[in-house]
Amino acid sequence: MIEFINNSSHKPFIELRDYYKSAINKKQNNIESILIASYSKKINEVDSRIVNLKIVDNDELIFFSNYTSAKSIQFTEHKQISAVFYWNAINTQIRMKAFIQKTSSDFNKSYFSNRSKDKNALAISSMQSKKIESYEMVKKKFQEASNKKDLSICPVYWGGYKFKPYYFEFWNGHEFRINKRKVYENNNNGWISYYLEP
Fold first, then answer.
1. Per-residue confidence at 198, pLDDT binned at 50, 70, 90?
2. Right CATH for 3-116+156-196 from 2.30.110.10, 3.40.50.720, 1.10.1040.10, 2.60.120.200
């Protein structure tokens, strides 16, 4: 589930909330799953992965990660990303373009302290994306972290990322591929909207 707080009055964010509610009503599985694409200047490659979006705060979307992970390094090298929801229960994808940045240390600490112990044990134990000799070692490190006395203390290498889209495309699939594609684009003077051909 995604937590919506301080709801934005801008039209694309209103539509995002409306589609979210529709998908919830249709029992969409993994509704918080969002694909994040990034670019590595170092190796001149694009990359993508699915993460769990946790919060929409006004016009910022927030997820969490290990700050030493491959994606975090890519975000440092190139701050522009693209993001996509696909909710098959309502045959809708929402495409976004944005610039990404870290959330504050205080925000990270507060959020981490309210998570489950199992989630925090994994965050503490895993050096995300780094090579490891076996899956058994992954489980061993997790178990060792689970035995720590205080699992509410946020490690410095873990935290949030927030991004504020400047481009939305709301795509609705229809029969005979007569798909509806509505775009919102922020041109520094506010949001403009238009449609794209299927």
1. very high
2. 2.30.110.10
